[in-house]
Design goal:
By secondary structure, this protein is an alpha+beta fold. The protein is built from twelve helices and nine strands.
Length: 366
């Protein structure tokens, strides 16, 4: 009797467990609710929620830049000239998800991935994380995090997938000739392949600041005379180091600080030179040619007399097409790829379930 009672109890408990499992599995999972379909492939609420968070900062910045809006209470519902941040965030997120789904469909058609659903992406993430964990255990290099989460994996996965897709498209769908690439080079060279002009020069400076013999006016006069003597010797063909020794002997002064340096003026240094050495900047921007020596000038901000010898001048120009052909091709394919996706977008069957998005209140988490 006791045995029968025990069996009945076990069966009862087992039935309760089964019913609980069935109840939990049968319950609807809001995050799995389709909020859109792309060519019959569902986009889930979970995907939209994640993408909304990715778009969040961009939307806030857009409204700040466009309307001077400040983020705060009721920001997402506030109307700015017919636009609300919430609706813009939703539209941007959906457009991004649709475009991503089309990329995944394209990748599947080329046999690069097995499926296009969010669950398929999570399986890819799990596979990549296992590969990274095994690499760490084997003391092999791992670039990036040892373990991805959903927010970072999608960008990582898509960036690698796009490289493969562009290569596939270049083989079959996108034809490019050298003439096409040459034309593209002409279109992008001003933004991608400019060569800054550069002036290489040798600078000799004689300081008149700091401690020394005589008054400050006397030290300044001594420095000027020494700089002029140096310039004359260099102009006559003497090396600067030799000229310094000779000029010191002539002046009978071995305490003055003399500096000789090689430098160059480029576009990224121009602002710094203009602010800290305005006389030098003015002379370098003038008409001196390679091999010529400037007159001695007073760089008052630094407290020194200076002259320069221009060693070389490189004019503005462009890097050649031939040396950048690979980069031109990559740029061409980037544009061709986006154009191809635009065509897929126009042909796609897209359904957006607005009432489900509203019911799930996904925007409330922003």
């Amino acid at each position: 009797m006791k045995l029968k009672g025990m069996v009945a109890l076990i069966l009862t408990l087992f039935s309760i467990v089964l019913l609980s499992i069935y109840y939990v599995s049968a319950r609807p999972h809001p995050e799995r609710t389709p909020v859109a379909d792309v060519n019959g492939s569902p986009i889930t609420a979970r995907e939209l929620e994640n993408e909304l968070m990715r778009q969040r900062a961009g939307v806030i910045d857009y409204f700040r830049q466009t309307y001077g809006a400040e983020y705060g209470k009721d920001f997402w519902e506030t109307d700015y000239n017919g636009e609300t941040p919430g609706s813009v965030a939703r539209n941007w997120a959906l457009q991004s998800l649709v475009r991503t789904r089309l990329e995944l469909e394209l990748a599947q058609s080329y046999g690069l991935i097995r499926g296009t659903s969010y669950e398929d992406l999570l399986l890819e993430m799990d596979k990549e994380n296992k590969r990274r964990r095994a690499a760490v255990q084997a003391n092999e290099p791992v670039y990036g995090p040892v373990k991805f989460d959903e927010s970072f994996f999608l960008n990582y996965f898509l960036s690698h997938l796009r490289i493969e897709l562009k290569e596939k498209l270049s083989e079959k769908e996108v034809k490019m000739t050298d003439e096409d690439l040459q034309k593209h080079y002409e279109q992008i060279k001003d933004t991608m392949f400019t060569l800054e002009g550069k002036v290489s020069f040798e600078k000799t400076a004689v300081s008149y600041r700091g401690e020394g013999k005589g008054t400050s006016a006397e030290r300044k006069l001594t420095a000027k005379k020494l700089a002029e003597s140096l310039r004359t010797l260099v102009d006559q063909g003497m090396e600067v180091t030799e000229a310094v020794q000779s000029a010191r002997l002539q002046a009978g002064n071995d305490t003055v600080t003399i500096r000789n340096t090689d430098d160059e003026l480029t576009g990224d240094k121009a602002g710094a030179y203009y602010r800290s050495q305005p006389q030098l900047y003015s002379i370098l921007s003038g008409s001196l040619k390679a091999g010529q020596i400037s007159a001695v000038f007073d760089e008052e901000l630094l407290g020194e007399y200076v002259f320069i010898k221009v060693k070389a001048i490189e004019a503005d120009g462009y890097q050649s097409f031939e040396e950048n052909k690979h980069n031109v091709r990559s740029s061409f394919m980037d544009i061709a790829y986006e154009s191809y996706l635009d065509k897929l977008y126009d042909k796609a069957t897209i359904e957006i379930y607005e009432e489900r998005i509203d019911r799930l209140k996904l925007l409330s988490n922003l």
